[in-house]
Write a structure and sequence with these properties.
This protein is mostly helical. The chain contains two helices and no strands.
Length: 70
């Protein structure tokens, strides 16, 4: 007769439910999609910042020329 406590003991099993596999794959795909969207937003923000910095320089140069009276 087997020990009753070993029947209820926690153990690892080689079987995985297909739902778990599909869920993990879907979650992984969602994480990659989210990271890709974050990268695109960061790139757009960096581009916008560079354009704004150029515009600020132009405005500052124009203001200096106006102040000098050139």
């Amino acid at each position: 007769m087997s020990d009753p406590s070993s029947e209820n003991a926690w153990h690892l099993d080689k079987r995985l439910p297909i739902g778990l596999i599909i869920g993990l794959l879907a979650q992984s795909a969602a994480i990659v999609w989210w990271a890709s969207a974050m990268e695109a937003r960061q790139s757009a923000t960096e581009t916008m910042n560079a354009e704004q910095a150029s515009q600020i320089d132009t405005i500052q140069n124009d203001a200096q020329r106006m102040a000098v009276g050139a």
